[in-house]
């Protein structure tokens, strides 16, 4: 196993990376050529991601998918240029740029896939039958029942809505963020805190081997 | 009040109870994901505990990491 300290200090960008930075920071023909190359790079990434996720858009034809990839590449280009000063040479410039194309394309495909779908925002979970059948006496059924109870009793109303939408209704996090006027970062923090509460409750009941945890 | 009609299956339970400590935000994940995938591409045994925990808990970020790894494999230069 190799573990690299993620807080390692920035390294000097490789020569080709330095060329990217200096060309993009300049003006004239070299800058224009660099912008064109960068857009091609981002289009490669966005097409790749749109192709990977095309199953989410079963009715989409080649033209619609290409439009999504082009728009994502355009959006990614804006983001890359805005963030150019944050590139520290921890990876190659091309890999750093790719991630913007992949992000924009993924968000675009998921939004498109949910554009005409209702985003379910349940407040509660349908509980299992109060009179347990023989099957409900199994360990798995008991765990499910304990999880349902913990969702109902241990989470705040906001945590419950986010958890149920993301993990039970399988709403993509970016789609839910749009619906709630939030963002991926905030929803993931809510999810993280909710999971800690659920794990803590399940550990207390003996369903999980878990160290003591705080409940944010 | 709206009630979810979906069953709480094994996959949902695993996702609900995923241990996502140490905490890493999606923004921090995005900031590190390029370095992470290059390290994984060079050495599949490479581990970053915070990234691993985040990718266990965030499907969107995990998908992006997988996509980037695929992309690097297809375009190693």
Write the layout of secondary structure elements.
The complex is a heterodimer of chains A (216) and B (77).
Chain A: E1 2-3, H1 15-25, H2 29-52, H3 62-83, H4 93-113, E2 124-125, H5 139-154, H6 157-168, H7 173-180, H8 184-204
Chain B: E1 3-4, H1 10-16, H2 26-42, E2 46-47, H3 49-57, H4 59-74
Give the CA-based shape of chain A: elongated
Q: Helix amount of chain B, in percent?
A: 55-70%
First and last CA, distance of chain B? 54 Å
Helix and strand string of chain A, N-terminal first? EHHHHEHHHH
Shape of chain B: elongated
Tell me about the biggest sheet of chain B? none
Strand content of chain A: under 5%
- Low-pLDDT runs of 5+ residues of chain B are none
Number of helices of chain A: 8
Summarize the structure.
The complex is a heterodimer of chains A (216) and B (77). With 216 residues, chain A is mainly α.
Tell me about this structure.
The complex is a heterodimer of chains A (216) and B (77). With 216 residues, chain A is mainly alpha-helical. In chain A, helix 5 crosses helix 8 and helix 6 crosses helix 8. The two termini of chain A are 33 Å apart. Chain B has four helices and two strands; from the N terminus they run E-H-H-E-H-H. The mean pLDDT of chain B is 93. In chain B, helix 2 runs parallel beside helix 4 and helix 3 crosses helix 4. The longest helix of chain B has 17 residues. Chain B has 77 residues and is mainly alpha-helical. Classes of the chains: A mainly alpha (216), B mainly alpha (77). Chains A and B meet through strand 1, helix 2, helix 4, strand 2 and helix 5 of A and strand 1, helix 1, helix 2, strand 2 and helix 3 of B.
Features:
heterodimer, A: 216 residues, mainly alpha, 8 helices, elongated, B: 77 residues, 5% strand
């Amino acid at each position: 196993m190799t573990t690299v300290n993620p807080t390692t200090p920035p390294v000097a960008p490789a020569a080709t990376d330095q060329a990217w930075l200096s060309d993009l920071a300049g003006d004239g023909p070299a800058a224009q050529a660099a912008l064109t190359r960068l857009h091609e790079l981002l289009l490669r990434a966005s097409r790749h991601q749109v192709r990977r996720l095309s199953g989410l858009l079963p009715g989409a034809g080649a033209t619609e998918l290409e439009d999504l990839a082009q728009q994502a590449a355009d959006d990614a280009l804006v983001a890359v240029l805005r963030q150019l000063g944050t590139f520290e040479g921890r990876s190659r410039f091309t890999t750093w740029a790719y991630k913007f194309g992949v992000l924009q394309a993924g968000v675009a495909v998921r939004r498109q896939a949910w554009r005409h779908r209702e985003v379910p925002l349940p407040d509660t979970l349908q509980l299992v039958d109060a009179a347990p059948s023989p099957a409900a006496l199994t360990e798995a059924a008991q765990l499910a029942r304990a999880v349902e109870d913990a969702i109902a009793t241990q989470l705040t109303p906001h945590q419950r809505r986010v958890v149920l939408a993301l993990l039970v209704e399988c709403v993509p996090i970016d789609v839910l963020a749009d619906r709630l006027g939030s963002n991926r970062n905030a929803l993931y923090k809510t999810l993280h805190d909710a999971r800690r509460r659920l794990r803590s409750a399940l550990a207390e009941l003996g369903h999980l081997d878990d160290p003591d945890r705080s409940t944010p | 009040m709206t009630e979810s009609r979906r069953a709480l299956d094994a996959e949902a339970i695993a996702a609900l109870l995923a241990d996502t400590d140490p905490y890493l935000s999606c923004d921090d994940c995005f900031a590190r994901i390029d370095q992470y995938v290059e390290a994984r591409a060079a050495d599949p045994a490479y581990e970053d505990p915070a990234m691993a925990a985040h990718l266990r808990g965030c499907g969107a970020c995990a998908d992006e990491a997988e996509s980037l790894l695929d992309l690097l494999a297809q375009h190693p230069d």
